[in-house]
């Protein structure tokens, strides 16, 4: 058997996000974000954890660039903290030069070592000022103007050197976890007993539209005023699992699987990539709870040419049809989600987190489906896992991570197959994550890093997977697929 091939110019590296690694939350003029508030006002919801120190990347970024260099990474995906750039967030609020200077040091440090910066503008850390002023993502008209201004500041100040932009990370998680389950900041929910505010019947859909329009405004601004001189590309990172029918012979389960993926991905991809209304199944189920796009919204959507589909992929599930949606999870459509099918077969091997099973076969189907539906080059902007039991391991145990190595290998093989056998265009891969870091409301337990972080000393130690990813990728680039 030959090793399947990846294209010679395949982009690859590691990913992180600002609040998960930076720390230094009160330094150099940074404003508060909704995650600071959430962790401090509601510590029981984040296992007592917060990002005050996290991996202290703000002070140790040079060491982290060294790690990337040692791992042979071609690229590094990180996110900018909006509250460091515009502490109060809004379009008439001052820009913080010290925040700009930090990201300049990081970007320049990467470029000196030949590592390409991939910048996410928004990875869930909304300036608290905007939430307080007008409801943040709940105010569709205001937030899109403030996001556009923030994006313009970033293009102006970093775009001479940054050529790869991602507007938003996982708008689905921001809307559903932030406004339906209440498990992420700002923690609004009408079904979560810990929440005292929020209307989960409408808020996820309002904040979804706010994110779609914010993405489109930022891309349209880039197209008009920056792309001609800066010549970069800009995309969005969407999450979404692949779903197979619980009963492979039941038409209703087949429809449920497709419906589930439309609720996950089509929600954002239809307006952004197809410049169409939300998927029909969402309209049918949600009716007027789902905001409409006006003609002027469509003009903005049409003016925004998104260059690539950023895919965050971790796992897959089975979908079983329901007659009526469950009250507290109607955001998934009238579907039950299961990790075993009707025959009792598991969807994949267990990892170190309950929601994450290793499902590389379904990853290939997912890639091919997304490429066929939306027709844009795909970059995997996140993929990775904690190993079984890793949260309880010592450093010496954790740095030996064969489960993660196998996970990467199998997922790289699925990418190769989707390219070579199914004809997809897949142009890059970012492993999540460079470092063990703050796993949001799961705190510091789950370890997704290829680098072990000792949270007492903040010392970093490479795991075996970190040193092997480079060779896994180059092997797949040098051997041609035969089939
Ligand atoms: C992504 N789920 O979030 C985020 O982009 C990262 O910041 C995060 O650390 C990483 O995946 C690992 O979780 C997700 O429950 C969080 O299905 C939760 C889920 C999926 C993605």
Question: How would you describe what is shown here?
Answer:
Belongs to the glycosyl hydrolase 1 family. Pfam families: Glyco_hydro_1. The chain is α/β, with parallel strands linked by helices. The protein is built from 16 helices and 15 strands. The chain binds 4-nitrophenyl beta-D-glucopyranoside. 4-nitrophenyl beta-D-glucopyranoside binds next to loops.
Question: Which characteristics define this entry?
Answer:
483 residues, alpha/beta, 3-stranded mixed sheet, 14% strand, globular
The unique ligands bound to this protein are: 4-nitrophenyl beta-D-glucopyranoside
Radius of gyration: 21 Å
Mean pLDDT: 97
Global geometry: globular
Widest sheet, order of strands: 1-2-3-4-5-7-12-13
Say how many strands there are: 15
Structure, briefly:
The chain has 483 residues and is an alpha/beta fold. It is built from 16 helices and 15 strands.
Secondary structure layout:
Layout: E1 11-15, H1 18-21, H2 34-41, H3 57-70, E2 75-79, H4 82-85, H5 97-112, E3 116-122, H6 128-134, H7 140-158, E4 164-169, H8 171-179, H9 203-230, E5 233-238, E6 242-245, H10 251-274, H11 280-286, H12 295-303, E7 308-312, E8 316-321, E9 335-338, E10 349-350, E11 357-358, H13 360-374, E12 378-382, H14 395-398, H15 402-420, E13 426-432, E14 451-453, E15 460-462, H16 464-478
Parallel strand pairs: 1-2, 1-13, 2-3, 3-4, 4-5, 5-7, 6-8, 7-12, 12-13
Antiparallel strand pairs: 8-9, 10-11, 14-15
